[in-house]
Amino acid sequence: MTFLLEGLLLVSLCGLIVVFEKDLSMWTIVLKTTASLFFVLAGLTGYLKRRENRRFSGIVLAALLCSMAGDVLLALDQDQGLMFILGVASFAAAHVLFSVAFCKASRVQKRDLAATVILFALLFVLLQVGTFDFQGLFPVLLGYAAVISFMTIKALSLWRCRKGREQGVYLLMAGGVLFLISDMVLLFWLFGIDTPKEVQSVNWALYYVAQGCLSYALTAMQGNILER
Predict the structure, then answer these.
(1) Is there a contact between 4 and 42 (Cβ–Cβ < 8 Å)?
(2) Single pTM value for the model
(3) Of residues 35 and 78, which shows the higher confidence score?
């Protein structure tokens, strides 16, 4: 079932890119929502299948639901107004929930905090040196950058608890990194000057593959990742 849902996710992604390139805005919204629904259902399948891991997968599933809400809100946004703010808030909530789950599996250490500061500094430099029109949303993006920096570092910190559950951990790590890269690409699409249309398609490809990794990890995870 998980394989089927992940396959349908990829099919929806391909369809999304095609209708977007053809400027079919209504179908873009429909397929974006459909693709998001498939990664939520894939996560739900993993949650139901791996009973021993539900304390962890339940939090990840909640994060996937927040991500879907963010997808729908951003798809409906027309002028980077209230819908955009709510969409960003939904994604920030998703990153917080992912971070909570990852912290339960791998306790926060000083090196995690140091790495988070370094990654945030790099993102801050990107925001400063890039050619962007933030439309007054720079503080929102700065807070978002801090949240996703911590989430990405905690995803990578799962390396410390990979023994016996390598496949699931590697998928979570890959999902966290791809999520970060997709958001960096999205930054150029939403706020860059004269950004080509293909950038949005690249963002979606990275984003949905990231969510596919995170959702499939719940099925692939052998044993309770919360065990110490």
Answers:
(1) no
(2) 0.89
(3) 35
